[in-house]
Write a structure and sequence with these properties.
Shape: elongated
Order of helices and strands: HHEHEEH
CATH class: Alpha Beta
CATH superfamily: Aspartate Aminotransferase, domain 1
Strand order of the largest sheet: 1-3-2
Number of strands: 3
Radius of gyration: 18 Å
Distance between the termini: 45 Å
Helix content: 40-55%
CATH topology: Aspartate Aminotransferase, domain 1
């Protein structure tokens, strides 16, 4: 990896940042406000359905699913999710969370996300 391997920085190109700023200062500002409110509501509804606290500014729900794991562990739960066309991220991808999953509630339109939350709730028996 070399001396600089683990310390790389990635960012959007300056031109893209300037273009984004220009759009957001114009008509994009109203869209951002609408989308923020819409996804805040989606996250709150998703958390309520799953019986966990609402997000406090994030775009993810992080769930401890240890009570719902069988002998196959987290991989088995992830496979059951895939069998139901639901993709969630394994907690270990984000640190020492071997019994957690992460659900992004801004990755799709709110109605699609909430349908996925219903699927997850059924898988978890909630």
């Amino acid at each position: 990896m070399g001396l600089h391997g683990p310390h790389r920085f990635y960012s959007a190109p300056t031109v893209a940042q300037l273009a984004g700023e220009r759009v957001l200062r114009g008509p994009g500002e109203a869209w951002v406000a609408m989308a923020s409110a819409q996804y805040r509501d989606t996250g709150t509804k998703a958390a309520a359905r799953l019986g966990i606290p609402p997000p406090e500014g994030s775009t993810f729900l992080f769930l401890d699913v240890s009570a719902h794991l069988d002998e196959q562990g987290l991989p088995g739960l992830l496979e059951r999710c895939v069998e139901h066309n639901l993709l969630v991220s394994p907690g270990p991808s984000f640190g020492p969370f071997p019994h957690h999953i992460r659900l992004c509630f801004t990755c799709s339109p709110p109605d699609v996300v909430l349908r996925g939350v219903e699927v997850l709730a059924r898988i978890l028996g909630r």
